[in-house]
Structure formats: C-alpha cells, structure tokens
Amino acid sequence: MKLLKTLTIIFLYLSINSLNAQNLKPYILAAISDAPLAEISEVVKTNLTESGLEVIGEYYPANDSNRKVFVVTSSELKDAVKTIGGLTGFASALRIGLTSENDIINISYTNPIYWGNAYFGDNYDQVEQQYISVTEKISATLSNVGKVKDLPFGSKDGLTIKSLRKYRYMFGMEKFDDVAELNEFESYEDAVSTVDEELASTDNLVYSVEFPEEKIKLYGIAIEGEKGEEHFLPIIDILEPQHTAFLPYELLIVDNEAVMLHGRFRIALSFPDLTMMTFSKIMSTPGDIKDALKGYTQ
Question: How far apart are CA 296 and CA 260, in angstroms?
Fold first, then answer.
C-alpha cells in the first residue's frame, strides 16, 4: 500500500511537470459519473473536505439545476497569496464544477497551474510548489469520484506559460493588473464593513476569503438579474464539456480599494477560444458585471 501511494505521488508529480512543459488549458475534466447530480455533489463535497481542502462556498450558477459549483481554498493557496500579496488575492480560491450533460455528470475543476500562472505572472515561480501540492490534492480527491478522465479542456491548443503570464485576449485589451476600480474607502476596515453589510441583505454571496494582516479580502458573488449569469452564460458556454467552473465572479478588496478583474480579461481567460463574433454578443457584459459589483461597494 505504501509503495502504491508513493508511485501515485510520483505519477502526479511527473504529470504536473509534463503539463508545465505543454500549453495549458483553463479546466480539467477529472471524472464522469452516471449517478444523479445530488448524489455526486454529496460525495464530492465530502471527499474535498476529507482531503484537507476547505469548502468555502457552493451554488448553482445561472440558477441552473444542471450545474453546481464548489469553491475551495487551502493552506497552499493562502500561503501563495501571502507570499506575494496585492492582486494575487484573486488566486485565493479554486472552483470545482459539476455539470449534467447528455445524462452524464462531468466533474471538472479550474486548472491550478493555468490560473496560477495567469494571476501570479512572473512571480509564479516563487509559489510553484504550493500549486503543485494543491493540484495533487484536487486531482487525487476527484479521481475517487466516477470514471477517471484527467482531461484538460477549455481551449483547443491551450496557452503557453509565457503568454499566460502576460495574458490579454488581443492587442489593446486589458491584462491581469488592468483591474476595474469599483470604489475607494477611507480604510481597509471601512471597505470590508461596507461590502459585508451590502451583501448581508442579499443571497448572492457564494464565498469569501480574508487575509486581515495583508488587508486582502476576496468575495465570490452570484450575478443575478436580466443582465446577469442567466443572460451571458448560455451565450458563451457553448462547447462541451461546459465551463461551469468559470463562475462565480469575484470582487477583491486590497487595502482601501475594491476592484474586480476586467471582464475582457476574466471572461476571455476563461474562454480563450471564443471568437470575436461570440464576444460581441456580450459586449455589454463586462460593464454590466461592473455595475452589479459596484452596487455592493456603495
């Protein structure tokens, strides 16, 4: 048994190093199952918790009963954020998506290596070991649910590490640090108090992660209304497997400012192969998301 565990760890390590040498894709299809979504959901949540990952939120994106998202954080992700700080607070959490497609439940997750390189940029090398560790945890955990696939997806050719670290969809569009500013406050405490109070009057908060000493707090928020998830998700999530783990969208407090990743960066990073024609159908969505999140900072 000890030998088997050792070989498994070696295999995962070699797989991750192999992945680093290849183009990266935003999601990984971990497994599939023909069990009901509710049953798989319970198994996934239990396994995540028992593996040492912290389940900090769950919801049905776009109010779609065929989709479920679990949001997790971990000591590794928290250590990585504390190491660099600032806007890397967006990397505080990873998402697991369960999607009922063609009578099968697809169990997927945001590829940690992909998102880590996009959010930490050239600083990723400083936190690579944390990302290898959390990838091993998630991969091993979800391999115990259904039939194992371990298939990266979300982009036909994927993106190189170099392009991810400086990612933008096309020339002239926003990069990671070209954030959309939502509001500025007198202090970090004032910012957190305001957002917490506004969210308390709704059911839209999916999760939050806070780093008080670093003055960072990340919120995952369901975007509702006629211009929200139910509007834009069906337009852009048109390929299989579906990109359920794309949501929820995030609001970040850093020091005394509330910001969000610009929609033309965050949506494009999640759907790097979508054509300009498809993106043109949601041309107003980045602004609509900004308006929705800005409402929690007033």
Answer: 12
Omega cis (within 30) before 36 = no
Asked whether the beta carbons of 65 and 72 are under 8 A apart, the reply is no
Instruction: Report how far residue 280's alpha carbon sits from residue 257's, in angstroms, rounded to the nearest whole number.
Output: 30
pLDDT tens-digit profile of 176-231? 999 999 999 999 999 999 999 999 999 999 999 999 999 999 999 999 999 999 99
Supply the Cα-derived Rg of the chain in whole angstroms.
18
Identify whether the C-beta of residue 204 lies closer than 8 Å to the C-beta of residue 221: yes
Segments in the chain below pLDDT 70: 1-21
| First-residue to last-residue Cα distance in the chain | 56
What residue ranges define each of the domains in the chain, with the CATH number in brackets?
A: 2-157 (3.30.310.70), 180-297 (3.30.310.70)
DSSP of 123-168 = GHHHHHHHHHHHHHHHHHHHTTSSEEEEEEESSSS-B-HHHHHT--
Rounded to 5°, angle at Cα 189 from 186 and 193: 105
Answer for the pair 122, 78: CB distance below 8 angstroms, yes or no.
no
- Of the candidates 143, 148, 141, 112, the residue with the CA atom closest to the CA atom of residue 128: 112
